[in-house]
Amino acid sequence: MESCSSFFLPRMVGYSNATYLLATGKRFPADSKVLDGLFAELLPKPEDVFPRAVELAGDILQNVSPMAIHLNRQLIWRNGGSAEAAHLTDSPLLADMFGGNDHAAFKAAFFKKQLPNFQDSLTRNAPRIYPWWEEVSIKSPPQGVSSNLSKL
């Protein structure tokens, strides 16, 4: 296991499938049931990947606020580790977003059957609790740890 796969793999495919993948050492095709949850889409030919990626990027840019995309990614990757912690973070974020310019732009565009013109940005009007996480120190030695102590 490398690159934090012991953390991410079970969360993506489930603990049983992750254990099965690692214990058997087998190779599996991308559409194998044991890899369910790993891929959002499977395309029939490799040359279909780039055009689909461009199409998907266009859909995202037209339909989703850049700030909402960023905040949703941060909620996924920097969650509190429990349903309660997630609720305490995402509820105030959602309330701020509902009161923001992008939400108003989306509602107006929706009813006019037009594309929204998103304007919110983290530099101008970030949600009150942003950022909600504490950065982890990667200094060597870690802060608060004496450099003359063994790591074992």
TrEMBL record:
It comes from the Eukaryota. InterPro entries: ClpP/crotonase-like_dom_sf (IPR029045), ECH/Chromodomain_protein (IPR051053). Belongs to the enoyl-CoA hydratase/isomerase family. SUPFAM superfamilies: ClpP/crotonase. This is Uncharacterized protein.
